[in-house]
Amino acid sequence: MATGTLVSLAIYFLAMLAIGLWAFRNSDQNVEGYMLGGRQLSPSVTALSAGASDMSGWMLMGLPGAMYVAGLSASWIAIGLIIGALLNYLIVAPRLRVFTEVANNSITIPDFFENRFNDSSRILRITAAFVIVIFFTLYTSSGLVAGGKLFESSFGYSYELGLYVTAGVVVAYTLFGGFMAVSMTDFVQGCIMFVALIMVPLVVVVDLGGLTATLDALTGISPQAFNLMTNASSGQTLSIIGIISLMAWGLGYFGQPHIIVRFMAIRSVKDVPTARNIGMTWMIVALIGALSTGLFGAAWVANNSTRLADPETVFIVLSQLLFHPLIGGFLLAAILAAIMSTISSQLLVTSSSLANDLYATLFKRQASQEHLVFAGRLAVVAVALVAISLAFDRSSTILTLVSNAWAGFGAAFGPLVILALFKANMSRVAAIAGMISGAATVLFWIYAPININGQSLSTIIYEIVPGFVVSFIVILGVSAFRPTTDPKVTAVFNAFTEQMKSAQG
């Protein structure tokens, strides 16, 4: 590897560790400070942290690869994500910020569920915590696999070394700096991703002789490259169900704990519109950059007779062939930024559920703030070790499971979060039934041995659609037949309503 690339990567890693040290020295060392940043995130940090923790390596590898193969028809996923993210800012963000503070200053999503419905049985908290721990440990493992493969394919180092370096840096700044460190590093990583996704497609267009020459080259490769309704590779026309299935990724936003926890941490509900404007601008520009990288990259590869064995490496190939090694290292750091920002967010949410929702609930109810922070740090290490051990098996089914986790979270938590924020008479029983039915529907849709015209259920339509619909209907149905009669639940919702009016006024 060129010296310039190594220098860029070394600077990046040192910067992440420095931010972790700064956060450790400047944040409150209590549970709210460690796990929620003391609810003091600025709008810009909230927005870019949510965006960076959301997109992961998919933004720089998966989406450009899909665009490279399928042409403009792959953009339906991006359109769905943009709509879902915008609705998340409009529907969930302001109300969740206020309600989690009113509901006994809830620190985690399971904590909020318990306090919102006055669940003395603690079934809601424990069930939600187990869902988070299981799925996010797999998610974290998937991110480490991506880091290991990036080191192996691009840097020339061993896969195992890539695992250790990626995990080591992320664990270091998450362990000591907690939520504030994760959010600040996400902000920096989001900026790196933003710049990289503008630079690469722009340089490709310049290298090909301008936009007109690039578009002509694409038309020569495939006349369907610019057709929203046709897969450029297969030539097949997308059905309405196919488009709905692609756009349905946007439904997942309402139930992703590592994203919506940012809304709980913003310093004021009045800052949400600013965060929304920054976050949506970042997201739209970054998605356009990712789509353009794949589309224009196809033209560059064909024009230069370059062989591309894996379409998902188009960003890596372009960054190494078109840029000086020092800049190329920065662009590779952008991929690491995407991977690490998501790992750190998922690692912290998982450790928070282990320490605050399971350990403190089941074993140490009278634990001090310092004890819970220490337990949270131990949980970070424990989850990372399990994720590393899982990541050693590159041929395992973990990545398949993780590809369904977005749907699992979206269906289990999405309708529950939305209706909990808006429906006053929603009961604890309805919340439990909705969460379980949503997750069960997703699992059934994925694993049921049912075929229709030779196609599995998940092939016909993305499993989040039936899961989300079933969960939503179950919650509304159970609430209609068994509305809450708990005066404490009604009182908390009324206090939240008054606080929302005050905050928005």
From TrEMBL:
<feature type="transmembrane region" description="Helical">
    <location>
        <begin position="460"/>
        <end position="481"/>
    </location>
</feature>
<keyword id="KW-0813">Transport</keyword>
<dbReference type="InterPro" id="IPR001734">
    <property type="entry name" value="Na/solute_symporter"/>
</dbReference>
<dbReference type="InterPro" id="IPR018212">
    <property type="entry name" value="Na/solute_symporter_CS"/>
</dbReference>
<dbReference type="Pfam" id="PF00474">
    <property type="entry name" value="SSF"/>
</dbReference>
<feature type="transmembrane region" description="Helical">
    <location>
        <begin position="429"/>
        <end position="448"/>
    </location>
</feature>
<keyword id="KW-0997">Cell inner membrane</keyword>
<feature type="transmembrane region" description="Helical">
    <location>
        <begin position="282"/>
        <end position="302"/>
    </location>
</feature>
<feature type="transmembrane region" description="Helical">
    <location>
        <begin position="161"/>
        <end position="182"/>
    </location>
</feature>
<dbReference type="InterPro" id="IPR011851">
    <property type="entry name" value="Na/Pro_symporter"/>
</dbReference>
<keyword id="KW-0739">Sodium transport</keyword>
<dbReference type="InterPro" id="IPR038377">
    <property type="entry name" value="Na/Glc_symporter_sf"/>
</dbReference>
<feature type="transmembrane region" description="Helical">
    <location>
        <begin position="67"/>
        <end position="91"/>
    </location>
</feature>
<keyword id="KW-0769">Symport</keyword>
<feature type="transmembrane region" description="Helical">
    <location>
        <begin position="322"/>
        <end position="343"/>
    </location>
</feature>
<feature type="transmembrane region" description="Helical">
    <location>
        <begin position="123"/>
        <end position="141"/>
    </location>
</feature>
<protein>
    <recommendedName>
        <fullName>Sodium/proline symporter</fullName>
    </recommendedName>
</protein>
<keyword id="KW-0915">Sodium</keyword>
<feature type="transmembrane region" description="Helical">
    <location>
        <begin position="238"/>
        <end position="261"/>
    </location>
</feature>
<keyword id="KW-0472">Membrane</keyword>
<keyword id="KW-1003">Cell membrane</keyword>
<feature type="transmembrane region" description="Helical">
    <location>
        <begin position="194"/>
        <end position="218"/>
    </location>
</feature>
<keyword id="KW-0406">Ion transport</keyword>
<feature type="transmembrane region" description="Helical">
    <location>
        <begin position="372"/>
        <end position="392"/>
    </location>
</feature>
<feature type="transmembrane region" description="Helical">
    <location>
        <begin position="6"/>
        <end position="24"/>
    </location>
</feature>
<comment type="function">
    <text>Catalyzes the sodium-dependent uptake of extracellular L-proline.</text>
</comment>
<dbReference type="InterPro" id="IPR050277">
    <property type="entry name" value="Sodium:Solute_Symporter"/>
</dbReference>
<keyword id="KW-0029">Amino-acid transport</keyword>
<feature type="transmembrane region" description="Helical">
    <location>
        <begin position="398"/>
        <end position="422"/>
    </location>
</feature>
<comment type="similarity">
    <text>Belongs to the sodium:solute symporter (SSF) (TC 2.A.21) family.</text>
</comment>
<keyword id="KW-0812">Transmembrane</keyword>
<keyword id="KW-1133">Transmembrane helix</keyword>
